[in-house]
From TrEMBL:
Species whose genome carries this gene: Agrilutibacter solisilvae
Repressor is among the record's keywords: no
Protein's recorded name: ABC transporter permease
Source domain of life: Bacteria
Protein family (similarity comment): Belongs to the MlaE permease family.
Localization in the cell: Cell inner membrane; Membrane
Membrane topology of this protein: Multi-pass membrane protein
InterPro entries noted in UniProt: ABC_MlaE_roteobac, Permease_MalE
Transmembrane segments: 46-68, 138-162, 189-208, 228-248
Cytoplasm in keyword set: no
Length: 249
């Protein structure tokens, strides 16, 4: 039955999350792996996030200006840009880009380790495969996602500023004044980073779970990669709605 299958899947995912937390050991080897994963899934995702943030900022500024200009409130475009970036678009779009670039990579790497018996070999050498292969990726995602979201929002607002001030003709001082008055540091800025941390943990756990339990074949690795992207993206969108409803009133 679908309900029973869904309940079992949630239970297995919960147990897998607990096993990742239990397997985390702050040793020198762990921190070495953590730094390597931060570079692989964080630094290598930065160019995509940078370009994506700039174009999203340009699009939101243009659409916001056209909508607000109808009501004679074009000068409020920076408020729409700032609130839209920090409350919704920044964390969500960064998470989706992160899943496409890093989440798929995590699932593919773990699936390939399963297919080539590297995970079995770690167990035979008395090395916890979750602590060795999964925990560093999980914590790297948890650290990188808020930073990537910060880059995304900064590039979006910077791009929006150049379009609003130098193309549309909005006064520079008014642009920053409205933005500063609209965006609250605690309610908007910090909550955006809290949401992005949840999204990063979700993306890493989903990708690691399906990759770690993939069929030990090349086809199984391919299926796990697809499942990681689809499932993590849907969960991020669902969690975003729930968190927005609870945090922003």
């Amino acid at each position: 039955m679908p309900f029973v299958a869904a309940t079992r899947a949630i239970g297995r995912a919960g147990l897998f999350t607990l096993s990742v937390l239990r397997a985390t050991r702050p040793t020198a080897d762990f921190f070495q792996e953590l730094v390597r994963e931060i570079y692989k899934i964080g630094a290598r995702t930065l160019p995509i996030v940078t370009v994506g943030g700039a174009f999203v900022g340009l699009s939101v500024t243009l659409l916001g200006y056209r909508a607000l200009d109808t009501y004679g409130a074009a000068n409020q475009v920076s408020a729409m840009l700032g609130l839209g970036m920090y409350r919704e678009l920044g964390p969500v779009l960064t998470a989706l880009l992160f899943i496409g670039r890093a989440g798929s990579s995590i699932a593919a790497e773990l699936g390939l380790m399963r297919a080539t018996d590297q995970i079995t070999a770690l167990g035979l050498m008395a090395i916890d495969p979750i602590g060795k292969a999964v925990a560093p990726r999980f914590w790297a995602a948890l650290i990188c996602m808020p930073l990537l979201t910060g880059f995304f929002c900064s590039l979006a607002i910077t791009a929006g500023y150049f379009e609003a001030v130098h193309v549309i003709g909005i006064d520079q001082g008014f642009f920053w004044q409205v933005l500063r008055d609209s965006v609250d540091f605690g309610d908007d800025f910090l909550m955006a980073f809290a949401k992005s941390a949840v999204f990063g943990a979700t993306a890493a756990l989903v990708a690691a779970h399906v990759g770690f339990h993939a069929e030990p074949t090349i086809e199984g690795t391919s299926v796990a990669t697809t499942q990681a992207v689809v499932n993590a993206s849907l969960l991020v969108l669902m969690f975003n709605f729930v968190m927005s409803a609870l945090l922003f009133r």
